[in-house]
């Protein structure tokens, strides 16, 4: 059975003080959220420990935004799966388009990170998606299928979330039409061996469009950037109808 998961990806936003302020407002705001859905906050590394303590006993689960494939070593600026585990992380975003675009992430390194995360018991959220140029050239499917083919080598699909994030829809307010997102997610599902993988949509999800997006049969949740930074806004998304 596919699980619904709403995940906030804070990217490089919020100090510890701002995180505590968020949680104090967010927790009561999701009191009435139906219990059929997972709620995840993927926050900067410096916020993980303090958030972990403050989430204790709540339905919110902790997520990170990157993980290295080695267990330890001279990898300045990276973080291991064990380090994330130690502070209570359960999910980790892997292969976000910003990592691919700005930090040289490839399908191969994405694959290494996915496997390392799983080996340590974390559930990776694998991001896939096409650029505007690729979409205009009718390459959407080819690009995504390649990301899946190379990214999922040796990956356990029973411990995996996928987020379809058309790059042109990220942070632009230019949401992918919900039926088109549904179509692409259906294609992604067709490439998987496990029919129960949660597949989210990401790209300018907000309180005004979440109900329509979540009404699509193939869409199992959302990976939310900008609109997850405000407690009332993310609470409304989590409580979609
Ligand atoms: O990881 C989240 C996505 O990049 C979406 O960001 P956004 O909701 O600000 O468009």
Automatic annotation (TrEMBL):
A single cellular component GO annotation: cytosol
Positions of the catalytic residues: 96, 165
Any one Gene Ontology BP term: gluconeogenesis
Principal EC category: isomerase
CDD domains: TIM (cd00311)
Top-rank taxon, per record: Bacteria
PROSITE patterns on file: TIM_1, TIM_2
Keywords: Cytoplasm, Gluconeogenesis, Glycolysis, Isomerase
Enzyme Commission number: 5.3.1.1
GO molecular function, one term: triose-phosphate isomerase activity
Subcellular location: Cytoplasm
Biological or metabolic pathway of the protein: Carbohydrate biosynthesis; gluconeogenesis; Carbohydrate degradation; glycolysis; D-glyceraldehyde 3-phosphate from glycerone phosphate: step 1/1
Keyword Isomerase part of the UniProt annotation: yes
Binding residues annotated for substrate, in chain numbering: 9-11, 171, 204, 225-226
Catalytic function, reaction form: D-glyceraldehyde 3-phosphate = dihydroxyacetone phosphate
Family recorded in the similarity comment: Belongs to the triosephosphate isomerase family.
Role description: Involved in the gluconeogenesis. Catalyzes stereospecifically the conversion of dihydroxyacetone phosphate (DHAP) to D-glyceraldehyde-3-phosphate (G3P).
Quaternary structure and interacting proteins, as annotated: Homodimer.
HAMAP family to which the protein is assigned, alphabetical: TIM_B
PANTHER family: TRIOSEPHOSPHATE ISOMERASE (PTHR21139:SF42)
Name of this chain's protein: Triosephosphate isomerase
Source organism: Romeriopsis navalis LEGE 11480
Gene: tpiA
């Amino acid at each position: 059975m596919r699980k619904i998961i709403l995940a906030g990806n804070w990217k490089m936003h919020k100090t510890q003080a701002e995180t505590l302020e968020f949680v104090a407002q967010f927790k009561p705001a999701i009191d009435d959220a139906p219990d059929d859905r997972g709620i995840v906050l993927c926050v900067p590394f410096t916020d993980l420990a303090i958030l972990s303590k403050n989430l204790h006993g709540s339905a919110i689960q902790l997520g990170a935004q990157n993980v290295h494939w080695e267990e330890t070593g001279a990898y300045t600026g990276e973080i291991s799966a064990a380090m994330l585990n130690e502070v209570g992380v359960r999910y980790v975003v892997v292969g976000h388009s910003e990592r691919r675009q700005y930090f040289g992430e490839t399908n191969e390194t994405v694959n290494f990170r996915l496997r390392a995360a799983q080996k340590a018991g974390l559930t990776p959220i694998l991001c896939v998606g096409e650029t505007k140029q690729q979409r205009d050239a009718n390459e959407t499917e080819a690009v995504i299928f390649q990301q899946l083919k190379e990214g999922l080598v040796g990956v356990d699909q029973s411990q995996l979330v996928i987020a379809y994030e058309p790059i042109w829809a990220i942070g632009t307010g230019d949401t992918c039409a919900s039926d088109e997102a549904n179509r692409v997610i259906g294609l992604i599902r067709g490439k998987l061996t496990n029919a129960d993988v949660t597949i989210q949509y990401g790209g300018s999800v907000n309180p005004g469009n979440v109900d329509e997006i979540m009404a699509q049969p193939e869409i199992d949740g959302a990976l939310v950037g900008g609109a997850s930074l405000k407690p009332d806004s993310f609470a409304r998304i989590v409580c979609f109808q």
